[in-house]
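Entry for the shared binder. Reason: the reviewer on the internal report wants the predicted structure included alongside the sequence.
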Amino acid sequence: MNKKDSKPKRTQIMTIKEAANYLGIHAITVYRLIKNTDIPTFKLGGQWRFKKDILDGWLLTQMRRKRSLIRS
């Protein structure tokens, strides 16, 4: 086994602005999602942060939810 393969995969930690850019929405919309506890986030040093892989999972869940509503 290669040493590179044994390292845990590092996930990107994003700020509000980075997450907003990634999602293609305004930072104010991200703050609204946080306020409504709709989006997975955590505070680090008093500032909101997002793990990219968790945000991707949340996004997929939102997309599936919308699809199931459309089909109903």
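Summary line for the report: The radius of gyration is 15 Å.
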